[in-house]
Design goal:
alpha/beta, two-stranded antiparallel ribbon, 6 helices, 9 strands, 31% helix, globular
Length: 187
């Protein structure tokens, strides 16, 4: 069947993909045309129950992306839950990563920083520094919207954080061209 459709694509490009070395994963996130690998310059969420390896997978993928794209790129990590630096170093080492990791500060003058400010810092670093390859947010389920922390959600508590996350307003400053990985344990 032939369609009488004209598509003015403008300045589009084919989605670049990176094979991670994990064949089943590469096949699962591959394209409909059979191209294997993780789509670069995109957001990805890893979901699942607690303690099943979401963060470990995110660390591994971050290391792979950074090392295969440039050899020695850097990674920004915005950890909202707490982080074992020794384990992070091991997980990144297994991926072949040999670059720099910057952990975004969770405290400012002894007080917890707003999550949105921490995320903004990671995105700004990604956009300003050509050597930064990945921003990792762990865990998106720990994200507390500013309105909730200020008590502005009102009486309705049918999972306000989930409603906020699914609204698409969590990253209003994040262009669609920014690669990032987030983890979520809300399942």
């Amino acid at each position: 069947m032939e369609y009488d459709i004209v598509i003015d694509a403008g300045n589009t490009h084919e989605i670049e993909r990176l094979e991670t070395g994990l064949y089943t994963f590469d096949k699962a996130v591959g394209s409909k045309t059979g191209r294997l690998g993780l789509p670069l310059r995109s957001m990805m969420e890893i979901s699942g129950r607690s303690h099943v390896g979401k963060s470990t997978t995110a660390y591994y993928l971050s290391g792979k992306i950074s090392s295969l794209q440039s050899g020695k790129g850097s990674i920004e990590i915005c950890d909202l839950e707490g982080l074992d630096v020794t384990y992070l170093k091991h997980a990144l080492g297994v991926s072949g990563f040999k670059g720099h990791v910057h952990l975004i500060d969770g405290l400012e003058k002894g007080k917890l920083r707003k999550h949105s400010v921490m995320i903004q810092e990671g995105v700004e670093k990604l956009m300003a520094d050509d050597n930064t390859r990945v921003v990792l947010l762990d865990s998106i389920s720990a994200f507390t919207p500013d309105a909730e922390s200020a008590g502005d959600f009102g009486e309705s508590f049918m999972s306000p954080a989930s409603a906020f996350l699914s609204s698409g307003e969590i990253f209003p400053f994040l262009p669609s061209s920014v690669p990032s990985i987030s983890t979520n344990s809300n399942l």
